[in-house]
Amino acid sequence: xxxxxxxxxxxxxxxxxxxxxxxxxxxxxxxxxxxxxxxxxxxxxxxxxxxxxxxxxxxxxxxxxxxxxxxxxxxxxxxxxxxxxxxxxxxxxxx
Length: 95
Hints:
Blueprint: E1 2-8, E2 11-17, H1 25-37, H2 43-52, H3 79-87
Antiparallel strand pairs: 1-2
């Protein structure tokens, strides 16, 4: 449904919300966003890779460390549901 990137101090949090994911899909998305943000990939490169539908054209897959499943929705997902989930503290990393 959406991807949100939020800055939290020196860190960036990437929230990916969807109905189903392929193996390593979120890690591939995160890796591509890091490559785009650091200039390894240009916006045109990202569009070309998406058009080609070929994961092999992407860079590295982001490591699993730091990846967390925050919520499983059993009803249709609304923007309000996503906002609520993102605003909740991240256990056990609560402040």
